Amino acid sequence: MYKRQVSAQLTLEECYRAARENYPLVRQFDLIERTKDFTVENAAKGYFPQLSFSGKASYQSDVTKMPFSIPGVEFGLDNDQYQLVLELNQTIWDGGVVRNRKEEARAESEVQKGQLEVNLYALNDRVNQLFFGMLLIDAQLAQNALLQAQLARNHGQVSACMQQGIANQADLDAVAVEQLNARQTESELRVNRKAYAEVLGLLTGRKGIDAERLVKPSVTVEPLEENRRPELSLYESQRQQLSVQEKGLTARYMPKLGVFAQGAYGDPGLNMLKGGFEPYYIAGVRLSWNISDLYTRKNDKRLLAASRDDIDVQEAVFRLNNRMETAQQWRTVEKIDTLMKNDDELIRLRTNIRKSAEAKVANGTLTVTEMLREVTAEDQAKQTKALHEIQRLQALYDIKYTMNH
């Protein structure tokens, strides 16, 4: 005896997770984190001793000479001079430049992650459209099965009426036509469901979704819940990045303090009056202050302030559009709720009319064509109810997506 296999179940939350994990962009999270670590590590090396090597060979048209001479003693410089220098520099205080570079790397990483979260979050909307599209088709297939069962009973009823002489072959053919239409509708629905399943399978990386049973989700959304969209976190990360950049303006114009040591070999050495190659060294403390950064500091701060204002405007526009979209979605839910209030009563009335029509056909007081019209009307009422249920559920999930609840 053939036993129908129970298909696996698939939930909407599972689709969300699978779509996120399968989407190629998700790999950028690791790349962003690694890039941040490398940049912070490189910035920290700004406090490492800096070693440099240089060499120089030159020819001078004139050299320093003494205005007197000592009999028997020769001294002076050659016109050609040579120098090899190895220099070691150690920063003691840089005004916060290295610390700021590390903070900038972290802030940039947060902005990149925020933008990536925004891009990935958009997947949820695509999953919703496909998932609820399949749920609606499933509801239509279930109703189609009920219609075919009803038409099969009508076919048997009309066959019995033919034997009693109150129906003819044309009446039976009319029922057969409706049965054929119902089977064609079923075939079309199954093709559409398979198409939806293929796209959802590509998006989530799952195979065989068409054979899985979708679990109808449940959701509760409150009208005044807080907005938690990832765009808002992105705007905040961008503001933090501007704050770090503003601190960098201060660090740039601060004085720098360090120590240095030079070891050299050259001609002449430190004793300018003694010719020939000699080794020597120099060590000391170096203080530098590049005040030219002060020239542009005011305009640089104004540019950062303009960027901050631009972020504020973007967030204000996003929040306004978000509120308008949410309000429209709530109106959609309310409209569907109003329509659903009459669905059950319409189905009850249509079912009574259909049963009455069947009884009249059995008594020979109503044609089969008129009875089939009532059968179709009852089916349409049931399909409308199924459509409203899925539409309401999807509308609530649209609100959930818009507010990230």
What does this structure look like?
With 405 residues, the chain is of the alpha+beta class. Helices cover 65% and strands 13% of the residues. It is built from 7 helices and 6 strands; from the N terminus they run βααββααβαββαα. It has a 4-stranded antiparallel β-sheet with strand order 2-3-5-6, with no helix packed on it. A two-stranded parallel sheet has the order 1-4. Helix 3 (97-164) runs antiparallel to helix 7. The radius of gyration is 41 Å and the shape is rod-shaped. The two termini are 48 Å apart. Mean pLDDT is 87; it is low at 1-6.
Helix content: 55-70%
Instruction: Find the structural class using helix and strand composition.
Output: alpha+beta
Lateral arrangement of strands in the main beta sheet: 2-3-5-6
User: Helix-strand pattern, N to C?
Assistant: EHHEEHHEHEEHH
